[in-house]
TrEMBL record, chain A:
It is a single-pass membrane protein. Keywords: Cell inner membrane, Cell membrane, Cytochrome c-type biogenesis, Membrane, Transmembrane, Transmembrane helix, Transport. Its main location: membrane. This is Heme exporter protein D. The chain crosses the membrane at residues 12-30. Required for the export of heme to the periplasm for the biogenesis of c-type cytochromes. Belongs to the CcmD/CycX/HelD family. It is found in: Cell inner membrane. InterPro entries: Haem_export_protD_CcmD (IPR007078).
TrEMBL record, chain B:
Belongs to the CcmC/CycZ/HelC family. Required for the export of heme to the periplasm for the biogenesis of c-type cytochromes. The gene is ccsA. The chain crosses the membrane at residues 25-47, 67-88, 100-119, 131-149, 161-184, 204-227. Pfam families: Cytochrom_C_asm. Keywords: Cell inner membrane, Cell membrane, Cytochrome c-type biogenesis, Membrane, Transmembrane, Transmembrane helix, Transport. The lineage of its organism: Bacteria, Pseudomonadati, Pseudomonadota, Alphaproteobacteria, Caulobacterales. Residues 18-188 form the Cytochrome c assembly protein domain. This is Heme exporter protein C. It is found in: Cell inner membrane; Membrane. Its main location: membrane.
Length: 55, 248
């Protein structure tokens, strides 16, 4: 098994396609996780507020 | 009396608490499966021989075709979830629909962009207004319209209803996307996946990376969909608590 990373004259089309795919996947993952973390923290904060300050 | 009779096997997911318990382990599991499949798929992508006609651009097919499959599949999920939200007014179905839209739009952008990057060297043009490309562009517009509608109306229930109706109308476009290459004379090639006629089917050496990458995309969508639904469940909870605090 040998890797072929030399796209020759098509490199100018092949690599931007893979780079764009990587960027979009990174965005999808980062945005989904950030959104989940943000709303989880918000819900937990409001839940703690609703219970009132602990004495 | 009052007992809930769960006939539908998916009913267990309709309860937000049960969904949160299920998705807590299912989301990372799908994410791990996606990661493993993506590594195997990329190894296959860069070890298969170049195509005698397409040369090295054939490697772009292994990221373009899965993106195109997911673009339509995610819209189907959006349509089904919108139907369930509209008819049964279930909050989780609405969250499932809302969570689909940005992911589906991203897959559609990828399908269009990678297709365009392949089209320039192979067809000699970045874009052509043929039935397949145009119907996929229309698919993107439905996703963007759905997102815009949800963001435009302050009343969340009204926004959800309007967006769900738009999503259902957009379902009409899905068979057009799928069969456009059969119904009209198109520059875009016909289906060559595992389900195509044997004379049009991909050689096995290219079918494997295509299959593995498609499963990687599908698993990634599964993981991200669950994460986004979880975020929307927490958001709903946070807003309900905020409302309760304001009323007190």
């Amino acid at each position: 098994m040998s890797f072929d990373f030399d796209a020759g004259k098509y490199a100018v089309y092949v690599w931007p396609a893979f780079a764009l795919t990587a960027v979009v996947f990174v965005w999808m993952i980062a945005d989904s996780l950030a959104s989940a973390r943000r709303w989880r923290a918000e819900a937990e904060r409001r839940q703690a507020d609703a219970k009132g300050p602990s004495k | 009396m009052g007992a809930h009779n769960n006939k539908n096997p998916f009913d267990f997911l309709a309860n937000p608490e049960r969904f949160m318990a299920f998705s807590r382990w299912a989301a990372p599991m799908f994410g791990a499966i996606a990661g493993v499949l993506a590594v195997i798929g990329l190894i296959l992508t860069f070890t298969v021989p170049e195509d005698y006609q397409q040369g090295d651009t054939v490697r772009m097919m292994f990221i373009h075709v899965p993106a195109a499959i997911l673009a339509s599949f995610v819209y189907l999920c959006l349509g089904i979830a919108s139907f369930l939200a509209l008819v049964f007014r279930h909050v989780l179905a609405d969250a499932a629909a809302q969570a689909c839209a940005p992911l589906g739009a991203a897959f559609t952008v990828l399908a269009l962009a990678t297709g365009s990057l392949w089209g320039k060297p192979m067809w000699g043009t970045w874009w052509v207004w043929d039935a397949r490309l145009t119907s996929v562009l229309v698919l993107l517009l439905f996703y963007l319209g759905y997102l815009a509608l949800r963001g435009a109306l302050d009343d969340e229930q009204k926004a959800a209803r309007a967006a769900a109706i738009l999503a259902l109308v957009g379902l009409i476009n899905l068979p057009i996307v799928k069969f456009s290459v059969d119904w009209w004379n198109s520059l875009h090639q016909g289906s060559s996946t595992l389900f195509a006629k044997s004379e049009n089917r991909l050689p096995v050496v290219y079918a494997w990376p295509m299959l593995v990458m498609s499963l990687a995309y599908l698993s990634a969508f599964g993981a991200l969909w669950l994460v986004r639904i979880r975020a929307l469940v927490w958001r709903r909870k946070a807003r309900a608590l905020a409302l309760k605090a304001a009323e007190a």
